[in-house]
Amino acid sequence: KQEVTQIPAALSVPEGENLVLNCSFTDSAIYNLQWFRQDPGKGLTSLLLIQSSQREQTSGRLNASLDKSSGRSTLYIAASQPGDSATYLCAVRPDSNYQLIWGAGTKLIIKP
Amino acid sequence: DTAVSQTPKYLVTQMGNDKSIKCEQNLGHDTMYWYKQDSKKFLKIMFSYNNKELIINETVPNRFSPKSPDKAHLNLHINSLELGDSAVYFCASSYSGGLSNEQFFGPGTRLTVL
Lengths: 112, 114
Hints:
Helix content of chain B: under 10%
Largest interface: A-B, 23 and 29 residues
Structural class of chain B: mainly beta
Number of strands of chain A: 11
Radius of gyration of chain A: 13 Å
Order of helices and strands of chain B: EEEEEEEEEEE
Oligomer: heterodimer
Shape of chain A: globular
Largest sheet of chain A: 6 strands, mixed
Number of helices of chain B: 0
Radius of gyration of chain B: 13 Å
Number of helices of chain A: 0
Number of strands of chain B: 11
Order of helices and strands of chain A: EEEEEEEEEEE
Shape of chain B: globular
Strand content of chain B: over 45%
């Protein structure tokens, strides 16, 4: 059974720092992996999607990597800003169906 | 333009009542989903419809009944509401063809059962 874990559960850093959020999954048979952002009381915004055949995806200051064999993905945020404060969720789509299996999220606070 | 919309955004109701949450997407997607996010922030799939047909039905009480009148809509009806149904419910959609099947989410409906 696929399980997704995100570490750390919470992270607080000063503005301007580069940081890494981690996501691990137990079954390497995945179709793709998505990183989402959730602001308090709001919906989920898709940030990056990595196909199982890809190693990384980039969007602006965000870079997501995928190592299927070790069951890991990282989300790298460069030059963090207070507006990056949110909960970041990692979700894996198994090979077999359309559903997403979710991690519990990392709550990120960027201090001005 | 709103891509995935849900109504209502907030719903407060008494135990035992029946309520519905509506979802609409204007992205031309053929697959829609309902997720439940509990107080610990875990998201779990409840249902998924592809071209108006049920393809995923996780272990959800049969008090929850999804209805998809067309590909752009997936509504969730809940009978005999219980305290444990309090959560945020998210609707999402995706396109089953193509490479990514990226899912796009609505803003959520916060259901509080008193």
